[in-house]
Write a structure and sequence with these properties.
The chain is an alpha/beta fold. Helices cover 44% and strands 19% of the residues. Bound molecules: NADP nicotinamide-adenine-dinucleotide phosphate.
Length: 254
C-alpha cells in the first residue's frame, strides 16, 4: 500500500489536496492539530471511496520533538508522495509584530518543513516515483508590506525546495522535488494572519483562487516534469516553470 502524506490537512489547501489525491485512489496520511477536522476529512474521503486508508496523525509542527516523533511514527508506511503544506502568516509591520507568533511561524514554515523534507529525502531519494511537494507562495519571490516576515519564510521555502530539487537532479537521484507557489487563495489564512474571526474574500479581494482550484494546480504540478508551479501575481494564471533562482551545480561549486 502506498501513501500520500499531507501536513496542514485540517483546512484550506491541505484539506482540498487530501481530497484531490484521494480522488486518484491514493491512501492518505493527514496531519494537523485540529483532530476533529481531520476526522471530518476522513469521513468525506470515505464517502467518495470507502476502500481508501486514511490515517490521522494529530501533531503540532511548531514543536521540534513532535516533528521528529511524527516522522518516526510513519516509518512503517510506504510514502510515495509527501506534501509539506502546513504554514501560516502574519499581517503587521515588523515594528508591531508579535515576536512569539513570529517565532512559531519560523518553526512551522521553516524548521518543520526542513526537518520533514530532509528526513523524507534521506529515506526516499533513491526511490523511483517518490515525490516531495513543498508549499511556498508567490510572496516567496517578492516582498510585501505588512507581510515581510511571512514572505521571508516563504523565500526560504522556495530557495530550499528549488535547491533540493537541483541537488537531487545533480546526483541523478530519481526522487522529484516540487514547489507550489499559490497567490491569494480562499482559506483560513487571512483569519490566522490578521487574528480576526471572519473574512470575506469575495468582498475584499479582487483576484483569488479557491482551495479546490489550488489543489487541482498541485496535481497539475505533480503530473508535470517542471519543478515550480506558481500563480502569476498579475494575471493569476497558474504557470509551470523551471527553477527560478540561479543555481551553481556541485561540480562548478567545487
Ligand atoms: P489554512 O486554511 O489556515 O491552513 C493552514 C494549515 O496549516 C491548517 O491545516 C493548520 O492546521 C496547519 N497548521 C498551522 N499551524 C500548524 C501547527 N503548529 N502544527 C500543525 N499544523 C499547523 O491556510 P492555507 O491557505 O490552506 O495554507 C496552506 C499553505 O498555503 C500555507 O503554507 C500557506 O502559507 C500557503 N499559502 C497560502 C496562501 C493563501 O492565500 N491562502 C497563499 C500562498 C501560500 P491546524 O490549525 O489544525 O493545526
Amino acid at each position: 500500500m502506498k501513501y500520500t502524506v499531507i501536513t496542514g490537512a485540517s483546512s484550506g489547501i491541505g484539506y482540498e489536496s487530501a481530497l484531490a489525491f484521494a480522488s486518484r485512489n491514493q491512501n492518505v496520511i493527514v496531519i494537523a492539530r485540529r483532530e476533529d477536522q481531520l476526522h471530518k476529512l476522513k469521513q468525506e474521503i470515505h464517502n467518495i471511496n470507502p476502500d481508501l486508508d486514511v490515517v490521522i496523525k494529530p501533531a503540532d509542527l511548531s514543536e521540534s520533538e513532535h516533528v521528529h516523533a511524527l516522522y518516526e511514527s510513519l516509518k512503517e508506511y510506504d510514502i510515495e508522495t509527501w506534501v509539506n503544506n502546513a504554514g501560516f502568516g502574519n499581517s503587521a509591520p515588523i515594528t508591531e509584530q508579535n515576536v512569539h507568533k513570529i517565532e512559531k511561524m519560523l518553526r512551522v514554515n521553516i524548521e518543520a518543513l526542513t526537518t520533514l523534507s530532509t528526513l523524507y529525502a534521506h529515506d526516499y531519494a533513491e526511490k523511483e516515483g517518490a515525490t516531495l511537494i513543498n508549499v511556498g507562495s508567490d510572496v516567496g519571490y517578492r516582498l510585501v508590506a505588512n507581510g515581510v516576515s511571512y514572505a521571508a519564510t516563504k523565500f526560504y521555502v522556495t530557495a530550499f525546495t528549488e535547491g533540493l530539487a537541483q541537488e537531487l537532479q545533480d546526483q541523478g537521484a530519481p526522487m522529484k522535488v516540487k514547489l507550489l507557489a499559490p497567490a491569494m487563495t480562499e482559506t483560513e489564512f487571512v483569519k490566522t494572519a490578521r487574528e480576526i474571526d471572519e473574512f470575506s474574500y469575495r468582498d475584499n479581494v479582487q483576484k483569488y483562487h479557491t482551495a479546490k482550484e489550488m489543489a487541482e494546480f498541485m496535481l497539475e504540478l505533480y503530473d508535470s516534469e517542471k519543478v515550480v508551479g506558481k500563480v502569476n501575481s498579475e494575471s493569476y494564471e497558474f504557470e509551470l516553470l523551471d527553477p527560478i533562482y540561479p543555481y551553481t551545480s556541485r561540480r562548478k561549486a567545487d
